[in-house]
Amino acid sequence: MAKAVFYHAGCSVCVDAEQAILPYLDRTKTDVETIHFAQHPDKLDEAEKLGVKSVPALVLNGTVYHINFGASMADVRKAVGK
Amino acid sequence: MAKAVFYHAGCSVCVDAEQAILPYLDRTKTDVETIHFAQHPDKLDEAEKLGVKSVPALVLNGTVYHINFGASMADVRKAVGK
Fold first, then answer.
1. Which segments constitute the Thioredoxin-like fold domain (chains A, B) (predicted)?
2. Phi-psi region for residue B49, left (φ > 0), alpha (ψ -120 to 50) or beta?
3. If you measure CA to CA, which chain A residue comes closest to B67?
4. Number of separate domains in chain B
5. What ipTM was assigned to the predicted interfaces of this complex?
6. pLDDT tens digits, residue range A13-55?
C-alpha cells in the first residue's frame, strides 16, 4: 500500500487541488492523509525535511510533488506563527 | 467519468511523475491519456490554450495542475522544433 500525504495550508490553490485531485486517487492502492499546517504546525519541520517547499504538495511514497503554487513554506510559517 | 490528460515532454521530471503518480489514479473514475509532445507537437497549441505553462502537467476536468517543474513550454517548443 502506498502512502500519500497531502500538505495543505488553507490557501485557495490548496483547496482546489484537494477537492479536484484527491478524489481521483485510488484508495485501494494508497492511503491518503491530509495535513493542514494551521492545525498541525508541528508538521512543518517534517514536511520541509521531506523537501516540501510550497503548498499544495503531495508526498507520494516519499517523493514530493508540488502541485501548482499556493504559498511558500516561509509564508506558511508566517501565517501560522511558526 | 473524469478526463485526465498528462502532458509529457520526455524530461526526467515528466518520467518520474508519470511513473510515480499515474498508477495511483483511480481508473474507475477517470480516463487517463498521456500526450508526449515529441510525438504530438500538434498538441502544443491545445495544451497552451488550456493553460499549460510547463511540463509535467496534469489537466484534470479542464483544470491544469503543474507538477513540479521539468521544462517550460518555450523549451519544449525548442526541443521539438515547433
1. 5-66
2. alpha
3. A67
4. 1
5. 0.93
6. 999 999 999 999 999 999 999 999 999 999 999 999 999 999 9
